[in-house]
Design brief:
alpha+beta, 3-stranded antiparallel β-sheet, 6 helices, homodimer, 27% helix, DNA-binding
DNA sequence: TATTGTTATTAACAAATTGATAATAACAGG
DNA sequence: CCTGTTATTATCAATTTGTTAATAACAATA
């Protein structure tokens, strides 16, 4: 947006004398639900039952909710956009500078935080776990989250994020943000299955996804079974 | 959310002495993109080309952006949730207490407002125009919006809202919030057409929508042509 | 009363998309 | 060459769409 220009002396005066204190001020945090698919080791890489959808959590070191788990995030600083704030924590925890992110929802409960009125603008971030270098944070399986002591309303927040992720999987190409540049259709299918939590039929899956993919000409090798074609996402920059 | 309980004396102390001023405070507005379909008169009620998608706008009376058009909305007050703030403006401008609303997006540009840092949590509201009693606001046709001088980033905000509305029309039952209790399939189709901005084929439309509807047994009458069955939405409370 | 204009509703059929199962292909290792 | 395993294609039924045409029901009017 271009910089605002006052229309006249009077407005200039108005703005100069404006008292920001007349409206309640609210602290704002940006919290990130960072999703990754664990691919622990090379051997397990293609074994669906060894993989799972995970979220990145940090353990709080201060009050309130000391020692509880929470989403990575923090207060929006002076003159900082939400995206900037988000990228700051993202880089801090994962070492990644440009993971795909989108705004999820702004949580506004009056007593979310016992200190003061704090609203949380939450984001979903998707990344290829193998590119991330995690620091001061842990990957937690989705099913484990409900077993942990979670700070604030972050447990609910994660649940909402999962719903959104599952929904968007169906009608967007969002999944490719969690994939490496090149992958096989089976790998892609397993990512869908892990996120949706259900098995898909291979024949139908291939048919519908095929037109979004581009053959690299390469094949997997040394697998003890028929090798697989390797594809890349055909869509826009990813 | 239940009220937070400090875990120990130390935390109690911490909270008592907490200084909220250490983090930047941001003013928050809630702005509503209120959609309605104009059905100006009884005669035009079923004539598609006489109807259009409209948004409710107000003319600003103060600086900044004095005399510009803007979305109805305002600052979130002390201890007020976004929904409460929204309902306040909604009732104020339309007389309606419970129009369907959902959060759209939180706009966070640092210089959105020349007075100070103000973020806008925006909502989409859908209503049946015939139930609304508009006060201090005007219905503006969507195409006219771009011709008006709009305050802040509200022009962009409206564009985003329209995208969301069109998208959600396809995979949710959101449309019924703009319909009266009882309606004909042709009326429903015309609402889809107005929002999407394109004609739909009647046969296909009926087929796909039919299973969401329940026949009231009533018919339209006195129309000069074959009368129409009157339906209601079968889904959950609406 | 038969005809005309108009909108509603159903029918009918082709085209495209899905669901589901089976067949075939390609590899490593014995 | 046979076995176990995963990849990929083929096949066919079932379902859903796109499209056009037929039929129905009314008011007004000839």
């Amino acid at each position: 947006m271009e910089r605002y220009q006052p229309c006249c002396k009077e407005e200039e005066e108005f703005l100069r004398n404006y008292n920001p204190g007349q409206f309640p001020s609210i602290a704002v945090t940006v919290d990130a639900v960072i999703f990754g698919i664990s691919r622990d080791s090379a051997e397990n890489y293609r074994k669906l039952d060894k993989q799972s959808l995970k979220v990145l959590l940090v353990k709080r070191t201060d009050y309130p909710y000391k020692d509880y788990y929470s989403l990575p995030g923090g207060f929006v600083l002076e003159g900082e956009t939400f995206e900037e704030s988000l990228q700051r924590t993202l880089e801090n925890k994962t070492g990644l500078k440009n993971a795909y992110s989108e705004q999820l929802y702004t949580f506004d409960g009056v007593h979310r935080d016992p200190r003061m009125r704090v609203i949380s603008c939450s984001y979903i971030s998707l990344l290829d776990t193998r590119k991330a270098r995690i620091k001061d944070a842990v990957w937690v399986e989705l099913e484990e989250v409900s077993k942990l002591a979670m700070a604030f309303d972050h447990s609910f927040l994660i649940a909402e994020a999962v719903k959104r992720l599952r929904g968007k999987l169906q009608y967007t190409d969002i999944v490719f943000h969690m994939m490496p540049e090149e992958f096989t259709i089976s790998e892609l299918q397993s990512v869908y299955e892990i996120i949706l939590g259900e098995k898909l039929l291979a024949a139908a899956f291939r048919r519908t996804i095929a037109n979004k993919l581009e053959d690299t000409g390469k094949m997997t090798s040394n697998a003890g079974h028929r090798p697989s074609r390797i594809f890349r996402y055909k869509g826009r920059e990813c």
